[in-house]
Amino acid sequence: MKSSVEEFTPGYYGLCAAGGMLSAGAAHLAITPFDVLKVNMQVNPIKYHGILSGFSTLCREEGASALWRGWSGKLIGYGIQGGFRFGLYEYFKKVYGDLLVDQSNGVIFFLSSSSAQVFADVALSPFEAVKIRVQAQSSFAKGLGDGFPKLYAKEGFYGFYKGLLPLWCRNLPFSMIMFTTFENSVELMYKNILRRKKEDCSRAQQLVVTCFGGYVAGAVGTVVSNPADNIVSALYNKKASTVMQAVKNIGIRNLFTRSLPIRIAIVGPVVSLQWFFYDSIKVLNRLPTSGGLRRHLINTE
């Protein structure tokens, strides 16, 4: 049965944005406790030095409800970011694919993901600024409702975007590596494991491929983005006033290793869930699952 939404139309990109918003918001909401621990491990690594001991310390000192601090920022902030990231990625992939006909697919994936992420992080930054403070400073605010006005009163408009540059430094490499790894993983699965074209596989098989590609993409992207993630947490929680000071305080080795195990535990499943939810929405609307690049063929007749 033919989809009611034609590909590469405004309606299609709107559906992709809505799918990205729902999938990212739901996936990030599900792992809020791990994100709370991750932020505290970055801000206070001596006190929160392990995953199990960290959860135990948080629950013992602040109660189990502390594990869900900042949930609204995860749901709304990352939902909005996901809408921009996935919707604009689909848009830019088509635009760049049609314009840069002599470039390899890898170049198109890098350009498309980085272009989409620039806008996605501008949308995310205010929510991230409040979320991190709520998670690491129990007395700051309860959530977005009281956190936004409190942050604005203390630091003004700049407070919402103080970490935008580190966010770009974290998320641009992550997004570029994540999308490109996903695309290549999906292609590898169809070509070398299933040995069939995507169109010849069932919807269930396509969604399994999506989950596999998403998990690999998330794990690889996490390693690349870990230093910037530590810097973002240090800046928003006033452990440093500048990026260079944060780097000096944390140390080069710790930039790459601090909170990396828990980030891999978080990001791999989260990215896999996002892609699964995202492609499930496509499947429900009778659209092809993600992966691959279809370039526009100009009719010269």
UniProtKB/TrEMBL annotation:
It is a multi-pass membrane protein. Pfam families: Mito_carr (PF00153). The chain crosses the membrane at residues 12-31. Keywords: Membrane, Mitochondrion, Mitochondrion inner membrane, Repeat, Transmembrane, Transmembrane helix, Transport. It is found in: Mitochondrion inner membrane. Its main location: mitochondrion. The keyword Acetylation does not apply. GO terms for cellular component: mitochondrial inner membrane. The keyword Repeat applies. InterPro entries: MCP_dom_sf (IPR023395), MCP_transmembrane (IPR018108), SLC25A3/Pic2/Mir1-like (IPR044677). Solcar repeats lie at residues 11-95, 104-188, 205-284. Belongs to the mitochondrial carrier (TC 2.A.29) family. This is Mitochondrial phosphate carrier protein 1, mitochondrial. It comes from Castilleja foliolosa.
